[in-house]
Amino acid sequence: MVFAGGGTGGHIYPALAVAQALEKRHPGLEVVFIGTGSLFEKRVVEQHGFRLMRVSSRGFLGRSVFAKAGALFWTGVGLFQSLRTLWELKPQAVVGVGGFSSGPVMGAAILLRVPTMIQEQNYSPGLANRILARWVDRIAVSFEETKEFLGDRGEVTGNPIRMEFASVKPKSRGTPFCVLIFGGSQGAKALNQRVVEALPLLASQRLALRFVHMTGEKDRERVEAAYQVERLDARVVAYLDNMAEEYAKADLVIARSGATTVAELTACQKAALLVPFPHAAADHQRLNAEKLEQSGAARVILEKDLSGQRLAKEIEDLLKNPDRLTAMERAAARLARPDATVRVVELVEELMA
Questions:
Q1: 12: part of which helix (H) or strand (E)?
Q2: Can you tell me the distance from the alpha carbon of 270 to that of 288, in angstroms, rounded to the nearest whole number?
Q3: 81-97 pLDDT, tens per residue?
Q4: Do 165-335 and 2-159+338-352 fall under one CATH topology?
Q5: Neighbour tally for 272: CB within 10 Å
């Protein structure tokens, strides 16, 4: 069984959720990931006990004409690498999970007549999945509206999340009020900076607040120093390995709005302040976030409107109004799709039959 794509946690983690479930239901099944081969992919995939292989590829959107020509060349190289790799592996099925590395692998699978499926996590699909949609055998989507971008094809399954998130229970309200902050698997410099600017405005609430802040490696020391200056209770780390445990402790989450984050928030029934990444392909993070906001599960602040003052005000408002927080949690729970992983697994099993 092959999963193709990656680059970010938003692509890798849903694939890991499905891979874990398949492995449990089919003892002895070999699962292989094919992606960019980045250090992040290597650490996460191998940490979960799966094999990672690499093919050449480059991003296409938002680049110069020269860079686009280079991307086409490397995608072509990746296609030939993928043909050879899939010929040797002889997989029962190939699932594309998005990211530019999925394109050449899925293209090779289609040419070799291997059963294929794409798993689109976002409201608005990326370029690779829009192109592949007409050729693959199955499509799994997280939102009903996403089918319009894919030729009205797709089955609404929700976005798979890893098994450990199923055990997260709603937190009892109390002191301290714990705020979990992260900007995705690589951190987010702009979000980190606005948090630093908000800290002096929150210092008067230091006895009531506790922070867990995942910054990415480059910002860790600077952000940690800012918390220390204001004498705020905080654990500042470059990366969090056990996200399910951190969600369980959190009263409020401040984050970007990738599809995996959105799925985890609803599964864990967490209120959120979402700051969409403004340069995401097809603006999919804003669309993901607005879906939660319209349902009452989150508040959305566009990055251009985000300031330290605005962030501090939002945190204080929810700290002092627990009923609003509870209403957001209940709205998040109504959006959850706890059976998403099983539904995607069943589609994959149809391909493997």
A1: helix 9-25
A2: 15
A3: 999 999 999 999 999 99
A4: yes
A5: 27
pLDDT at 222: 95
The CATH homologous superfamily of the domain defined by 165-335: Glycogen Phosphorylase B; (3.40.50.2000)
| Segments of 40-176 assigned E as strands | 51-54, 94-96, 116-120, 138-141, 155-156
120 — phi, psi (to 5°)? -100, 115
Q: Identify each DSSP E strand in 73-194 by its residue range.
A: 94-96, 116-120, 138-141, 155-156, 177-182
Residue 273 makes CB contacts below 8 A (sequence gap 6+) with: 252, 253, 254, 255, 298, 299, 301, 311, 314, 315
Domain boundaries, the chain: 2-159+338-352, 165-335
Contacts of residue 352, Cβ cutoff 8 Å, sequence gap at least 6: 1, 92, 93, 115
Predicted confidence at residue 334, as pLDDT, reads 92
pTM reported for the whole predicted model? 0.82
Which of 246, 235, 239 lies closest to 218, judged by CA?
Answer: 239
- Which tokens go with 106? 């899925």
Report phi then psi at 258, rounded to 5. Answer: -65, 160
Alpha carbons 307 and 185: distance in angstroms, whole number: 22
Cβ neighbors of 240 (< 8 A, separation 6 or more) are 182, 212, 214, 246
CATH for the 2-159+338-352 domain, from 3.40.50.300, 3.40.50.2000, 3.40.50.10860, 3.40.640.10: 3.40.50.2000
Q: Please report, for residues 77, 232, 335, 347, 352, the alpha-carbon distance to residue 315 in angstroms, rounded to integers and kept in the order given.
A: 49, 14, 23, 41, 48
DSSP string, 131-163: HHTTTSSEEEESSGGGGGGGTT--EE------G
Question: Is the confidence at residue 60, as pLDDT, over 80?
Answer: no
Q: What is the pLDDT of residue 63?
A: 57
